[in-house]
Amino acid sequence: GAVVSQHPSWVICKSGTSVKIECRSLDFQATTMFWYRQFPKQSLMLMATSNEGSKATYEQGVEKDKFLINHASLTLSTLTVTSAHPEDSSFYICSAAPHKQETEAFFGQGTRLTVV
Amino acid sequence: GNSVTQMEGPVTLSEEAFLTINCTYTATGYPSLFWYVQYPGEGLQLLLKATKADDKGSNKGFEATYRKETTSFHLEKGSVQVSDSAVYFCALIGSGNTGKLIFGQGTTLQVKP
Questions:
Q1: Apex CA A34: angle with CA A31 and CA A35, to 5°?
Q2: Residues 6+ away with beta carbon under 8 Å from B7
Q3: Under the phi-then-psi rule, with left for phi > 0, alpha for psi from -120 to 50, and beta for the rest, what region is A83?
Q4: Spatial separation of the C-alpha atoms in residues A78 and A94, rounded to whole Å
Q5: How far apart are CA A69 and CA A86, in angstroms?
Q6: Helix %, strand %, coil % for chain B, to 5?
Q7: Bridge partners for B27 per DSSP
Q8: SS3 for A44-113, per residue?
Q9: Looking at beta carbons, which residues of chain A come within 8 Å of B101?
Q10: What is the pLDDT of residue A100?
């Protein structure tokens, strides 16, 4: 149980285009999902907290107009990188917290984004 | 705010050596503590966790004890294998912060045959 699926696992896009990444909780409901970004050989930095049915909460320094987050259902959150540029190339990872369970979070397998 | 500090790597050990990766934290209240492992090119896997003081988390020969008096959660393994080579992240979820993990900077472990 407690499987989180992230899609795609990798994507290459041209500079200026937009890319959508999906994060699904397959066997549980997740009121809250989280999006992280990881640069090579660095730690995971929280970008935003995605709340089902409401606006996402962005961490300081994260551009909300560039990284659009939608959490339309209890099992799906999406991150759209708009007008991507090479500096947006990174590893993006989502996690999901089961409803009313604060001591656990399950991770997707990550998405490697390369902007050329 | 909440934070996690890990020892810097890389840590290089010979097979069957004893492993310790230090982790200390700063948090108000009673956070939950975690160790995650990341193999090259992959996402994160939960290795072990502890949710209250003096709890010991253990898995696959790894263990860590939640020490509130020293605000520490050091990872240990008695005999490492080459397959343990990976990046290890210490993390916490603060009281009342559902699922929101704060990570340490990660420690790379290299185990040589």
A1: 145
A2: B21, B22, B23, B107
A3: left
A4: 9
A5: 20
A6: 5, 50, 45
A7: none
A8: EEEEEEEECCCCCEECCCCCCCCEEEEEEECCEEEEEECCCCHHHCEEEEEEEECCCCCCCCEECCCEEE
A9: 34, 44, 46, 95, 105
A10: 64
Tokens representing B64 are 């860590």
Distance CA B89, CA A90 (A): 18
pLDDT in tens, A47-56: 999 888 888 9
Q: CB–CB of B102 and A6 under 8 A?
A: no
Q: What is the DSSP string of B21-68?
A: E-EEEE-SS--EEEEEEE-TT--EEEEEEE-STT-EEEETTEEEE-BT
Among chain A residues, the shortest Cα distance to B4 is held by A43
pLDDT (tens digit, 9 = 90+) per residue, B1-39? 889 999 888 999 999 999 999 999 999 888 999 999 998
Q: Which residues contact A38 (CB under 8 A, 6 or more apart)?
A: A44, A45, A90, A91, A92, A93, A110
